[in-house]
Design a protein that fits this description.
22 helices; Herpes Virus-1; alpha+beta; globular; about 20% strand; eight-stranded mixed sheet
Length: about 800
């Protein structure tokens, strides 16, 4: 009772949540302790910040706040019941990983939870178990507010990524509907322009019934509904066959997304459709995508090494990561980064780095969270072998870490990584590299191990003169020459067999699948092969010419990251992922790829890339075609511009050659076009950028190039280092440093993707540790029995 009485003296240091406050009750601010951790989580009842036991005293000593709500949750396996057989697993209904209705990662139904909460008074950790009716009213109100409030991390979770949480269309309230007397029957539909009877869409303005787009695998419609929109601009269409009393699939062509229409019943009734009486007869877009992923089960099983009793691993460096709303792309990239010597050396003492951050450091938040990540992964604190009796699956019980705050921070302000949709691991790798670069000025930068220079040799064919250009890069993107397959006869025979199986609705077994086998050496040869540059302006000739470009490496990094460009287009221009097997070698010698610079027998082209050019008209129709295929709009505008409006085929080829560029999504800037005036200088933005170590001139140029967007301006600086050489420097800044050495490497990690596109599916990584391959599949960490090196997407090589 003494402890309860003490609370009366501290009531002024307690705050009752009023709604809207951020309450950090899922995860410690400085570690990955949670209510499920051994010592639970302490919530300050004034600031609502959460702390693990190792850090709560630091907060007390700094603030003097003494009263904390201690949350402790005990997770237990449910008692096994005598069941004759396991119930069948439910079919996925959402494009999600590890959430209700999504693809299974681990079965949370096996567990039950017991809460043991209390109020704790520091510094003596005097504890008052809850519930307790004797607590002061203000204390009870504070506790009730904390327990009932959504946590800060829950409030930041966005569920729009899985295709179910959709915005209300801006056209819904005032949708134009023509009084053309058109009535649509309840069934028996057919496209008005072809013979398609499936994948039909009803336009809600004119009542036309037309077929939809082709799917990723080439099936589907003939694009007649889209063609009609290009003519009429009538925005909303509903997929016939998905209409039920609960709703339907509705697409907005103008908003380029699936949307909601709260007035759907009225809009359907306009064309004689009784929504209440309709029954579902066709698959929704989500179901179609799920089917496509389910058909790739063989690939999933191989990459995840399904069906094998893998030996689980625990301890430092073997810590799993919870999949947060399809964050497997983040998990895989982070696991590989923190297995490299530079990241281990930088962040092994993560806690020390956290508390050495100065309060006025603009990089404090980011550096705190990445140091916290290092401590969580490398300490082994969250990867302890659980005590288990009998044959319990201990590999499902690793606590692992849940990087909610880190995910929220690195995605803040980004149009894609701020969502919970699946993303491209390659794009996230470059995004994270940029963030670390930005926040490491004046300090050790662990990403230096990936940094290298690319050398581009351009030779004017007519004059024979050359120009050498160098640029920074962190990732070697390799094309995949399908013509180099070494098993073409076997692939041809397999395609015949596959078609027979599809006609009989039979499923191929894993060992029956034959993929084109491409040697990695062929990919490297394709990368360094001469490339013809049409419409090249030769400064030697002062006229247009043809040039030959050869790309090589000017320096070799300590760790070389290779991306296989698996995502391409089929013959009918539908996006697809190449289902291939690449013969990846454990040892790699890139010595022949080293650039040599200007040779004594070569004559350099005079300075100048050509006369100033006015910005041409950009064919927005071609841009929209490319955007409809899933590519970034700014990148598509660049593609149309750089191919001089020569059509979708030329623009698409440019997209695939440049989509890995760091500035692919940066708005188009025409170097030769003269602007009438520069935008006013954003002095606040200049101060923020110069505070990170850049000069004022660099900050102004970057802001002018990105419409005064500070976030994009900093990214622009890192991706346009060569352009900044012409900017007058206020102070002499040290030039970029490159590590260089021999070109011999050893494979140490790879990241694999499962699914039809980078917008869906799952990522898994394999890492070579202590002489053995280890699979990291979110929270499951185990010895790999058969690492699928041939099916990787990103490969990490370490210099030997």
């Amino acid at each position: 009772m003494a402890a309860v009485e003490v609370l009366h003296a501290f009531q002024d240091s307690i705050k009752v949540p009023q709604g809207g406050e951020k309450i950090f009750k899922d995860e410690c601010c400085f570690s990955f302790d949670s209510p499920e951790s051994e010592n639970g989580l302490y919530i300050c009842m004034k600031t609502f910040l959460g702390f693990g036991k190792d850090h709560v005293l630091r907060h007390f000593n700094k603030t003097g706040n003494s009263i904390y709500l201690h949350l402790k949750t005990i997770k237990k396996l449910k008692p096994k019941t005598e069941a004759k057989e396991d119930p069948p697993k439910k079919k996925p209904t959402r494009l999600a990983i590890g959430v209700e209705g999504g693809f299974d990662v681990e079965d949370e139904e096996e567990f039950e939870y017991e809460e043991q909460n209390s109020v704790v008074i520091l510094p003596d950790f005097a504890s008052i178990p809850l519930p307790n009716a004797a607590l002061p009213e203000k204390v009870q109100s504070c506790i009730a507010g904390i327990l009932s409030a959504q946590s800060a991390s829950k409030n930041e979770e966005i569920e729009a990524w899985d295709g179910e949480t959709r915005i209300i269309s801006k056209y819904a309230d005032n949708l134009q509907q023509l009084d053309n007397g058109k009535k649509v029957p309840p069934k028996g539909w057919k496209c008005e322009m072809c013979d398609k009877t499936e994948n039909l869409w009803l336009n809600l303005t004119d009542g036309s019934v037309l077929c939809g787009r082709r799917y990723y695998d080439g099936t589907g419609g003939n694009n007649h509904a889209l063609d009609q929109y290009e003519v009429t601009k009538y925005p909303l269409a509903v997929k016939l066959g998905t209409i039920t009393p609960r709703g339907a699939d509705i697409y907005s062509y103008d908003e380029e997304d699936m949307v909601e229409d709260p007035h759907l019943a009225k809009h359907l009734a306009h064309f004689g459709i009784n929504m209440i009486a309709m029954e579902k007869t066709d698959k929704t877009m989500t179901e179609l995508e799920i089917d496509l992923n389910s058909q790739l089960k063989a690939e999933w099983d191989t990459i995840q090494e399904a069906g094998k009793k893998l030996v689980p691993l625990f301890g430092a460096g073997y810590t799993g990561m919870q999949n947060l709303g399809n964050s497997c792309y983040l998990n895989s990239v982070i696991q590989v980064l923190f297995s490299t010597p530079d990241f281990i050396n930088r962040y092994a003492n993560g806690c020390e780095l956290i508390f050495n951050q100065t309060p006025d450091d603009p990089s404090r938040d980011f550096n705190t969270q990445i140091a916290k990540l290092g401590a969580g992964l490398l300490s082994g604190v969250y990867s302890k072998k659980p005590s288990s009796d009998g044959d319990a699956d201990v590999d499902k019980l690793q606590e692992g870490i849940t990087p909610r705050m880190f995910k929220s921070l690195v995605g803040r302000g980004h149009p894609e990584f701020a969502t919970n949709r699946q993303q491209d691991a390659q794009e996230f790798f470059l995004h994270l590299i940029s963030l670390i670069e930005r926040n490491s000025r004046g300090a050790q930068n662990p990403c230096d191990c990936f940094k290298y220079q690319v050398e581009e040799r351009i030779q004017c064919v007519q004059s024979g003169q050359v120009r050498y250009k160098k640029r920074d890069d962190y990732l070697l993107a390799l094309p995949i020459p399908m013509e180099a397959a070494t098993n073409k006869d076997e692939v041809a025979a397999f395609q015949v067999k596959k078609k027979e199986y599809e006609e009989k609705k039979m499923v191929l077994k894993n060992d029956e699948i034959v993929r084109p086998r491409i040697p990695l050496s062929a990919c490297l040869d394709a990368f360094s092969a001469p490339e013809i540059v049409d419409d090249f302006y030769s400064s030697a000739l002062q006229a247009k010419s043809i040039a030959s470009k050869i790309t090589k490496l000017a320096t070799f990094p300590d760790c070389l990251v290779i991306q296989l460009k698996k995502f391409t287009l089929s013959e009918d221009w539908t996006p697809k992922k190449l289902d291939i097997s690449v013969d990846v070698t454990d040892e790699l010698d890139l010595s022949l790829l080293r650039g040599k610079g200007l040779q004594s027998n070569e004559k350099e082209l005079p300075e100048g890339d050509g006369p100033p050019q006015l910005e041409p008209e950009i064919d927005e129709g071609v841009v929209n075609q490319l955007v409809d295929m899933g590519f970034n709009r700014e990148g598509c505008r660049k593609a149309v511009y750089h191919t001089n409006n020569q059509g979708s085929e030329a623009a698409m080829q440019w997209v695939f050659e440049h989509m890995a560029d760091a500035d692919f999504a940066v708005p188009l800037q025409i170097g030769g076009a003269k602007k009438s005036s520069q935008p006013a200088v954003n002095e606040e933005g200049v101060m923020m950028i110069t505070g990170m170590g850049f000069t004022r001139d660099q900050a102004i140029k970057a802001l002018n190039s990105t419409n005064n967007n500070v976030e994009r301006a900093v990214d622009w600086i890192f991706s346009h280092a060569d352009e900044l050489e012409s900017v007058a420097m206020e102070t002499e800044a040290p030039g970029p440093q490159y590590r260089d050495g021999n070109g011999k490497y050893k494979l140490v990690a790879f990241i694999s993707h499962m699914g039809t596109s980078t917008a869906c599916g799952h990522y898994v990584c394999h890492i070579l540790k202590e002489g053995r391959w280890v699979i990291y599949n979110d929270r499951k960490v185990a010895v790999s029995e058969n690492p699928p090196k041939n099916l990787g997407y990103l490969y990490f090589y370490q210099r030997v």
